[in-house]
Predict the 3D structure of the following.
Amino acid sequence: MKNETRCLSNAQVIETLDMIERAGRCSSLSLPIKLLWELKKDITKLEDIREELSSMDKELNEPYMDDEHSELIKQKDGSEVRVVKKGYLEEFTQKKKELLEADNEIDLAVFSIKDLGDADLTLGMLQALSVFIED
């Protein structure tokens, strides 16, 4: 196992965390303790980025949530949802895209597939952990 700086876009951070959450908790895996510890620390780094991204996303949304930039649309179930007006949608979408494409240089503990030992991993968990596995 070694530390390596990886460049992940915000979209990749979200995707990695979503895959890990769907695949199940890493702590339930029968992996070496040191590897589990490093994974836990690295996942925390990714969660911190996701939290900052969420905050920035809210800031980005705020100017578009007034009556000038958006409108309330009635849903089939009677509830209302606020959507950005067509005249502002392209600008809004471009800003969202730029935010998701922004890169993060993250120091991660990467390991080889051999470090997993005899762990019984599902394909989903292996895919979720792929960002931490050496090329």
Remarks:
- The chain is about 50% helix and 20% strand.
- The helical segments are 10-23, 33-61, 86-101, 123-128.
- The chain has a mean pLDDT of 91.
